[in-house]
Amino acid sequence: MRKQWTLTQEAFDKLLAWFDSDRERAGKKYEDIRRNLIKVFAWRGFDNAEDLVDETINRVNQKVDELTENYTGDPALYFYGVAKKVMLESGRQNPPQSLSDMIAAPPDNNIGTESDERERMCECLDKCLAQLPQTDRDLVLHYYQEAKQRKIDFRKEMAQQLKLTQNTLRVKMHRLRMRIHKCMLLCLQQGSDETD
Amino acid sequence: MKQIDENCMVIEPHLLRMNPMNEIEQKERLTRQYLLGELDKAEREQFEVRFITDPVFRDAVLMVEDELIEDYVVGRLSASEREKFAKNYLTTPHQVQKLRITKALSERADEHFAPHSYSSASTAQETFARLRDFFKDLRAWKARRLALASLILLALTMLFLIVLLRRNDPRNALYQELVELNTQPSNVNTSPAMRSPMFTVTLAPVLVREVGEAKSFSIPAGASVVQLRLNGVIGGYRSYQAVLRTDEGEVFTLSGLRANNTNDGRQVIINVPTKFFQRRDYQLKLSGLADSGQYEAIADYTFRVSGVT
Question: What element of type H or E holds A195?
Fold first, then answer.
């Protein structure tokens, strides 16, 4: 399915010009579209989401002259239309059943690997949590501990105990999670590169 | 223009605009439905269009996505939601990785506060005190920055979320039923719940280095309660605690259990609504509350539910 990535600097410049006359704003728009489409492809079950988004951008790029002249409206919508076609052509990547199973039950012959992965995960978690200020680290650990107590409205109770609004707690936790996830992915990737 | 809330956190303008109740409710419900694969084709595309064109919606969706993963990890989704989540969300290695990270965080929290439960743990209390002090300091610094209107909106949001969370969680009633089933005097079946058709299983503890298959059973049709009779119970504890788990996380924790002398020796008896079980493997850990106030591990039990008819 994947075709060769052919976005040249010139083509990229044209694409940005279509988005916005301000290059900085256009660059941000491009990044937003790309990032959002990757999420959509992943939610639709495509594990090669980035490749398919590149393919989508490539196809739009081939029509950029025409679009600049004739298309009115949010470019993101046009990208989405093309993305749908790409999805249709690719077909949903039926995930192997083991994708969810493997979280809990690794095959016997992978026990060693799984154990290494867990160890690596723990190391990275230590590292990423250590990068947080003490108060944030406490908040994250406490939040997950509370979540396990099976209280339906634990977020509300926790916010009350911390004298925060519930919305503030949710937003703060969301930001902390994003920070930890980003750090973890980087750390795990580094570990994987070292192993390769 | 960005605002600062009463805790000195910068709040993006669009997050403040999220406050009208029906809007938040709609976004949360829609996002969960999308991620669980409950929307039809047209609704799904409508959702995706909004996701890629509306940054406010996008941020809200990503927050709800995180919370859904969290709910899955800590077992706060219903059985059917769990199934849909596994089928529709755990479909790419990246999303599985995201789940693993959340799971690791949750386990780390357990380790951090072990061996006490949160409610009695001095570590947890110290943590809470530290967090409270931290936010108190921040409030003192910027306490009156938020306009009254924003406070009212935030309070309304909180109220709405309380209602939403209570209404949407079907486990609440089930868990209450579990507690009720296990707070009756063990051998006196007086409550309506205890008169329900019951299927009884006796479990022997797993011995160290024991090799062999776990006990397997199928829950017969009509049985609304499964009674687990745990053998190998050591006496001398104030009470007992049972934690039921699957490989994916905790199913429930029951404290304050009593041991009974039966024809099969000393047993701890747990009555579990059948709805808690699916076809899968379970591990049950029994601990005793010692005079020191700490739980001591007594025995582990494993079993497989091969069918729920």
Answer: helix A166-195
The three-state secondary structure class of A125 is helix
Q: Is residue A43 pLDDT above 90, yes or no? A: yes
Average pLDDT value for chain B: 78
Residue pLDDT, tens place only, A129-167: 999 998 899 888 888 887 776 566 777 888 888 888 888
- Does residue A2 fall inside a structural domain? no
Subunit contact B90:A185, Cβ cutoff 8 A:
no
Length of chain A in residues, anyone? 196
Which chain B residues contact residue A104 at CB under 8 A? 246-248
Tell me which residue of B80, B56, B47 sits closest to A43, measured CA to CA: B47
Task: With CB atoms and an 8 Å threshold, state whether B19 touches A167.
Answer: yes
How far, in Å, CA of B303 to CA of A4, rounded?
A: 52
Superfamily of domain B186-308, CATH level 4 = Immunoglobulins (2.60.40.10)
Alpha-helix runs per DSSP H in chain B: 13-17, 21-35, 41-53, 55-73, 79-84, 93-113, 122-142, 148-168, 171-181
Distances in whole angstroms, Cα of residue B239 to Cα of each of A88, A150, B176, B298: 59, 21, 20, 12
Helix (H) or strand (E) holding B12: none
Residue with tokens 């109740």: B21
Q: CA–CA distance from B193 to each of B181, B188, B197, B275 (Å)?
A: 6, 12, 9, 13
* Structural domain span for residue A168: 110-195
Q: Please answer whether residues B286 and B191 qualify as being in contact, where contact means their C-beta atoms are separated by less than 8 angstroms.
A: no
Which is more confidently placed, B196 or A74? Answer: A74
Please work out, in degrees rounded to the nearest 5, the angle formed at the alpha carbon of residue B17 by the alpha carbons of B66 and B7. 70
State the nearest Cα–Cα gap between A187 and chain B, in angstroms: 12
CA distance A157 to A153: 6
Smallest Cα distance from B72 to chain A, Å: 11
Q: Which residue from A159, A13, A101 is spatially nearest to B158, judged by alpha carbons?
A: A159
- What pLDDT digit, counting tens, does each position of B150-179 carry? 788 888 888 877 776 665 555 667 777 888
Q: Are strands B3-4 and B10-11 parallel, antiparallel or unpaired?
A: antiparallel
> Does residue A114 share a domain with residue A188?
yes
Residue B242 pairs in a beta bridge with: B254, B286
Domain-located, residue A117:
yes
Residue of A nearest to B71 (CA): A147
| Residue from A21, A104, A27, A97 nearest B91 by CA | A97
Q: What is this structure's pTM?
A: 0.56
Given a contact cutoff of 8 angstroms between Cβ atoms, the answer to whether A106 and A117 are in contact is no
**Are A83 and A142 members of one domain?**
no
Alpha carbons within 13 angstroms on the beta-carbon side of residue B216 total: 8
